[in-house]
Amino acid sequence: MELEISPLAKPFPDMPQIAGVTLRVARAGYKDWGRCDLTYAELAEGTVVAGVFTKNVCCSSEVELGREQAKAGKARALIVNAGNSNAFTGYRGREAVEQIMGQVAAHLGCAPSEVFVSSTGVIGVPLPKDKARAGVEAVLDAEPCSWEDAARTISTTDTFPKGAMTQAMIGGKTVTLAAIIKGSGMIAPDMATMLGYIFTDAAVSPAFLQQALSAANLRTFSCITVDSDTSTSDTVLAFATAKAGNDPLTGEDSPGADAFTAALLDICRQLSHLVVRDGEGAQKFITVDVTGAVSDESARKIGLAIANSPLIKTAIAGEDANWGRVVMAVGKAGEPADRDRLSIGFGGVWAAKDGQPLADYNEAPVAEHLKGREIDISVDIGLGDGRATVWTCDLTHGYIAINADYRS
Amino acid sequence: MELEISPLAKPFPDMPQIAGVTLRVARAGYKDWGRCDLTYAELAEGTVVAGVFTKNVCCSSEVELGREQAKAGKARALIVNAGNSNAFTGYRGREAVEQIMGQVAAHLGCAPSEVFVSSTGVIGVPLPKDKARAGVEAVLDAEPCSWEDAARTISTTDTFPKGAMTQAMIGGKTVTLAAIIKGSGMIAPDMATMLGYIFTDAAVSPAFLQQALSAANLRTFSCITVDSDTSTSDTVLAFATAKAGNDPLTGEDSPGADAFTAALLDICRQLSHLVVRDGEGAQKFITVDVTGAVSDESARKIGLAIANSPLIKTAIAGEDANWGRVVMAVGKAGEPADRDRLSIGFGGVWAAKDGQPLADYNEAPVAEHLKGREIDISVDIGLGDGRATVWTCDLTHGYIAINADYRS
């Protein structure tokens, strides 16, 4: 099945090199395909790392190991396998990951725990050790490649390569953040899933990098959904090489910490939106703004209830401003809400206020808004100051075609 | 849009009259259609009632009022409006319900609180009081009708009328339970939703009827899902006319109480399955059996995580025994699970055991099973004795067509 490029795709941006990061790709042949499927990022000595991982309790060995490795905060290399998720493969899967870690560590002269491994692709098939060994050998010898090559190589069912960059000033020094991500659906076919990697030349302590990444995750990757399914492999890692020459950031009070956390939040938001833009079958990018909830977390849960509702996502696909379905989703979220204080709007036009349809509701601009690619849904709960923004895509025949019509 | 009859439909059963229950239908004209859309059940003096209602906090006035009325335990009449859900209509919607209650109460000489009202159909439009008044007047004058007529009249987007009956012996007396239900999706277009009505001639106290109905609900209506969306109007009422002549059932220790609760559970299970069989776009009826969970409630939550997963439902639509997606759903359920103890099977054949694909897994009988209309998924968590069964349907192009391709 040849997938068409998402109509919501963004062109791959110009992205600068990050000092201390070298990218290479090779072909391990995890599937019967001609493309490269093994990505390697070599990281300068002194690189620190932070990570956020899936909460799925049936996670892969890669996630189990990576979660422990990230706690130690040190990284020298990243390997990403595409075409085999190595999930649900028991001890044999774990052995394959440990083999890769050892092989790269021996090459670099570092500890195996400083080598991070991710895999996505078919499940239930242990990552073949012989192909992994030959692939790693080849990638260690390969020429450096571009961000776009790396973004293409980590992809599986993605319809376009995904990258983002941003910069921040820290005490007169410019630090740069560059990132690639893959994913099209919380889980795409064959457990193809969300993997994101952020690289920066900033000098930052592992603890503060983890704090900033966790905070950004809560407002970005944790606020997107394609189909409500939670992958067994989701991973986002941030690597900081400390090559920019800034005074190291060690906490919120370090000069420039605000600029760095803002830049990290920005790049995480860019990445998370790119995943939604490649959501399976997506034709529209939907932003759900929830205000007036009893807390920000309550607003996020209400937003996700709306963004996960098949009835709302199909209504948007049908360009139907069906605010009744939004009422339903607010009510089922399990969060405080009062039907008679609820207001709902599309594209900046309120359709219902205080629990009743507006008498002078003008549907024409709303109908026009819904014909576009970028759809805004606003919900005011009318109870407090809690707010959140959540992003999703519509639910279309394309989703069914990708997931049902073709055998995986 | 003319909907085809679900391929999973069941013929309407032969159903006996229930002493103390008289059904009538009429046309209120809530929509521009020729069919009857107002159903009336007159209940003998002394009829007791119990109810279970949607947990959606944005529920309709009908649900708010019905929940209070059911607590008092007495009923003389039921009115069901089709074509207008009267949800999200503020005080005007509530006035329309109170008008109907008063009109029927005046006719019967009972308290308005003994008249139960349900409505389904378009939302955000207050139930028109004039049409309701004329419709109620007509229905009170109408000839008695059959169960099938009543089942058709309460329907909205249902593709077939739904009824069920069963009997039980209580101290040498036969008691009969007959029921009708409507619904095709937790919410169908325009908030068409699940409404179920059970009538029995058994003599049973309101408290015990409520206890038995709540217990049955937990194992039937609370164990089905079509699309994970939760209606604002879901209602199941049980009416008992005490005409069978049995010694009244007042608690679990009453002679015959076991037989009655078993019969009530049986009829609730029949009704709940009929709703799934009319799930929007459904082509396959899916039974998910979860065993080995840490508790029955944990098993139910895991079962619902599986039954609500779009990726599993599309895989079944595609006749794909994608057990990896089942692993994913178990892991995201938020319940105790251990990847390395998990076993998954289809149609009685295990595909994976103890966290790994079976070496001698024979896919041929599984592939054959998945071609059928009735699909069984078995999941053993391997941790305890908790078990539950959950029912759902597959997710197909039909669902998208019903909910996105046509404006509501």
Gist of the model:
The first copy, chain A, is an alpha+beta fold. Chain A has helices at residues 61-72, 90-108, 129-141, 147-154, 206-219, 257-277, 296-307, 310-317, 323-332, 363-370, 397-405, and strands at 21-26, 38-43, 48-53, 77-84, 115-122, 162-170, 173-187, 193-200, 224-225, 235-240, 285-293, 343-346, 349-353, 356-357, 374-380, 386-393.
Give a verbal description of the structure.
By secondary structure, chain A is α+β, with helices and mostly antiparallel strands. Chain A has two domains: 21-277, L-amino peptidase D-ALA esterase/amidase (4-Layer Sandwich); 285-405, ArgJ beta chain, C-terminal domain (Ubiquitin-like (UB roll)). Chain A has eleven helices and 16 strands. In chain A, the strands form three sheets. Chain A has a seven-stranded mixed beta sheet with strand order 9-16-11-15-12-13-14, sandwiched between helices. A five-stranded mixed beta sheet of chain A has the order 3-10-8-7-6, sandwiched between helices. In chain A, strands 1-2-4-5 form a four-stranded mixed beta sheet, with helices on both faces. Chain A is globular, with a radius of gyration of 22 Å. Chains A and B meet through helix 8, helix 9, strand 14 and helix 11 of A and helix 8, helix 9, strand 14 and helix 11 of B.
